Amino acid sequence: MSRNFRRAGAAVLAALTATALVACSSEQAPQGEGGEGESAGSSTDTITLGFSQVGAESGWRAANTKSIQDTLTAENGFDLKFSDAQQKQENQIQAIRSYIQQQVDVIAFSPVVETGWDAVLEEAKAAGIPVILTDRAVDSEDDTLYESFIGSDFVLEGQTAGEWAVEQYDGEGYKAVELQGTTGAAPMIDRQQGFADAIAGSDIEIIDSQTGNFTRTEGKQVMEGFLQKYDDIDLVFAHNDDMGLGAIEAIEAAGKVPGEDIKIITVDAVKDGMQALADGKINFIVECNPLLGPDLAEIAKKVIAGEEVQKRIVVEDQAFDQEAAKEALPDRQY
Ligand code: GZL
């Protein structure tokens, strides 16, 4: 499906519509030892929520953490227990087990990778503690292991990036390199797929791909390697702004002009990325909204109250070219 990207005189290019796929779960919170509909450790007024965060790897993650910590406050009815897994799945599993031991009312987390969660999620279910996924998905066959998944459509993000690239560069024989996110992470798998689907049939060719683990440092290192290996790179598709910013450093150190000699497309639209876009060093950014705190708070309260919740909540994203970034920058929250 191709989109006609308007010259962005207006603030943003085609907004990506949010579709809240309503597949209301009719389940109550899993039965805990406490009896009908109660979750272990529930109390009358404050919801104790254990959150396992991926890490602090990027500007997006910092904004996401801030949104969660700013929203799940005591005055908002929460006792938030927060842990940073430093991008290690074993640390997340350990944190979730600790929350089960503490008999929190709800567990929420952003799974660093898609696979390997069934065992610990079964333990939470057996303990009667409902689980909410934010940001990234798990690939479990059993969707009763979590109440709801709140996050962006990463395939659409990759598609939007690829469609813009085709719109702008098809017919010029562009050679592209891809800075991939963390291997096995839902945004890495889906953005890669979406971008590849969108450029199929064009003459844009991905000549190499490598993970930069969503970090600026590793993005720079991988780009340095690509620049030593190839002298004809026209385009970089980076799965997040931070790796794109690292690529800019490598491109400039190699005496080339980012955004001109080598075009750059990224995902996230955090402030540093939007500034580079406005400065002409990046050419297009697809947003991935990190402000998931309010949705998490709302869903957690509904789950504890035994109300129906949407199984999948797709967060609305936008997309920006250089002109749109200049317009949007003053009002950006992250
Ligand atoms: C996407 C999120 C990704 C961001 C990166 O929802 O999981 O992880 O795109 C972050 O910046 O590291």
UniProtKB/TrEMBL annotation:
Major subcellular location class: other
Tagged with keyword Transferase: no
Periplasmic binding protein domain location: 51-308
Record protein name field: ABC transporter substrate-binding protein
Phylogenetic placement of the source organism: Bacteria, Bacillati, Actinomycetota, Actinomycetes, Micrococcales
InterPro entries: Peripla_BP_I, SBP_2_dom
Subcellular location: Cell envelope
Signal peptide residue numbers: 1-23
Protein family: Belongs to the bacterial solute-binding protein 2 family.
Database matches in PANTHER family: D-ALLOSE-BINDING PERIPLASMIC PROTEIN-RELATED (PTHR46847), GALACTOFURANOSE-BINDING PROTEIN YTFQ (PTHR46847:SF3)
One Pfam family this sequence matches: Peripla_BP_4
Protein keywords: Signal
Cited SUPFAM superfamilies: Periplasmic binding protein-like I
Organism listed in the record: Isoptericola hypogeus
